[in-house]
Design goal:
BirA Bifunctional Protein, domain 2, alpha+beta, two-stranded antiparallel sheet, binds phenylalanine, about 40% helix, about 350 residues, seven-stranded mixed beta sheet
Length: about 350
C-alpha cells in the first residue's frame, strides 16, 4: 500500500505540474482528491490495515494529501499569473502612436455675422427674442395693417398651411412686432432673428427660405432721428466706419413713413458695377415709424407712444460682409466653402 501511495502521489504531482490551465488543474484535483478520486479511494482501504500499520499509513497519506493540495494551490497561482501576463501583453497599448485628430467643425459664416449683429444690439440695450415660424395670418398680415386684399397675401406668394388661410409659414419676422407689444411692457427695445418663407425660385439672390432680423423700439418721444441714428451706427459697425448710407422713401403697410436703407457700393464707391448692378447703392434693410394703427392693434396709445421698426436680410448681410457672390453657397453646406471662414 505504501508503494501504491507513493505512485499515486508521484503521478498526481506530475499531473499538477503539467496542467496548462485552470480547467486542467481542476480535473487533476477531482481525479485524485475528489469523492471518487484515486487518493480518496486508497484512504478508504485503510480500514483493512492492521492497527499497527494504520497510524503510519495515515500519516503518510495525510502528508501526501497535504503535498498535493499545496502543489495544486501553487500551480493555480502560477497559472493565474501567466494568464494575467498574457492578457497584459495582448491588450498592451502603445501610447507612443500618434493619435487620430478629431475634425472639429466651426460656426457657419451666416451665424458668425448674426452673432456680431446680436452683440452690437445687446450693447445698445436691446433684447433678443425668438418667435414662431408657423404663424397666424392675423399676426403675419392683419394686425400689421395688411388687409385681406393685399397682394402679399396671395397663395402664389405665401405658404399657407390650411385651406382657409389661417396659418402659414411666416413671410417676414414682422409679426414679432405684434407679439412683442402684446407680451412685453413698455418701453420696448428688441431684435428678433429668424427664418422666413416665400414662394421664390432659388437663384443667386433668392431662396424660398431665408433669415431676417426684425427690430422694434417703442417708447415715448421716438422719432425718425432715432431710427436713422440707430441704423447708421449699426451699419457702420458691420460694414466699417467709412460706410456711406442713404435713406430712400418706400412703402410698407405697417410703418408710416417707411423707408429703405442703402449703403454705397463698397466695390465701386458709387459709380456703378456688377456687384451693385450698376446702381452704385446696395439695399440693406426696410424700416419705418410704427404705423399708429399697428400700435392701436396692440393696445398701445399712439398719442403717448411712438416707435420705429426695421427688417434686414441676414444672408444678404453675410454675403456683403464676407464678399460672397452667390446666396446658394450659404445653404449648400459644402465643406470646401465653409472651411474658408
Ligand atoms: N417686413 C419687411 C419685409 O420683409 C421689412 C420691414 C420690417 C419693413 C420692419 C419695415 C419695418 O420686407
Amino acid at each position: 500500500m505504501k508503494e501504491q501511495l507513493a505512485t499515486i502521489r508521484a503521478q498526481a504531482l506530475e499531473a499538477v505540474a503539467s496542467a496548462e490551465d485552470s480547467a486542467q488543474l481542476d480535473s487533476v484535483r477531482v481525479q485524485y482528491l475528489g469523492k471518487k478520486g484515486e487518493l480518496t479511494a486508497l484512504l478508504k482501504q485503510m480500514g483493512k490495515l492492521s492497527p499497527q500499520e494504520r497510524p503510519v499509513m495515515g500519516q503518510l497519506a495525510n502528508a501526501a494529501r497535504a503535498d498535493l493540495e499545496e502543489a495544486l494551490e501553487q500551480r493555480s497561482r502560477e497559472l493565474d499569473a501567466q494568464a494575467l501576463e498574457k492578457r497584459l501583453k495582448d491588450e498592451a497599448l502603445d501610447v507612443t502612436i500618434p493619435g487620430k485628430p478629431v475634425r472639429i467643425g466651426h460656426k457657419h459664416p451666416m451665424y458668425m455675422v448674426l452673432d456680431e449683429i446680436k452683440d452690437i444690439f445687446l450693447n445698445m440695450g436691446f433684447e433678443v427674442l425668438d418667435g414662431p415660424e408657423v404663424e397666424l395670418s392675423d399676426y403675419n398680415f392683419t394686425k400689421l395693417n395688411t388687409p385681406d386684399d393685399h397682394p402679399a397675401r396671395e397663395w402664389s406668394d405665401t405658404f399657407y398651411l390650411d385651406e382657409d388661410s389661417r396659418t402659414l409659414l411666416r413671410t417676414q419676422t414682422s409679426p414679432m412686432q405684434i407679439r412683442a407689444m402684446e407680451t412685453l411692457s413698455l418701453p420696448i427695445r428688441v431684435i428678433v432673428p429668424g427664418r422666413v418663407y416665400r414662394k421664390d425660385e432659388v437663384d443667386a439672390t433668392h431662396s424660398p427660405m431665408f433669415h431676417q432680423i426684425e427690430g422694434l423700439v417703442v417708447d415715448k418721444g421716438i422719432t425718425m432721428a432715432d431710427l436713422k441714428g440707430t441704423l447708421n451706427a449699426v451699419i457702420k459697425k458691420i460694414y466699417g466706419p467709412n460706410t456711406v448710407t442713404r435713406f430712400r422713401p418706400h412703402h410698407f403697410p405697417f410703418t408710416e413713413p417707411s423707408c429703405e436703407m442703402d449703403i454705397q457700393c463698397h466695390k465701386c464707391g458709387g459709380v456703378g458695377c456688377p456687384t451693385c448692378k450698376g446702381e452704385g447703392w446696395i439695399e440693406v434693410l426696410g424700416a419705418g415709424m410704427v404705423h399708429p394703427k399697428v400700435l392701436r392693434n396692440c393696445n398701445v396709445d399712439p398719442d403717448v407712444y411712438s416707435g420705429f421698426a426695421f427688417g434686414m436680410g441676414l444672408e444678404r448681410l453675410a454675403l456683403g460682409r464676407f464678399k460672397i457672390s452667390d446666396l446658394r453657397l450659404i445653404f449648400e453646406n459644402d465643406i470646401r466653402f465653409l472651411e474658408q471662414f
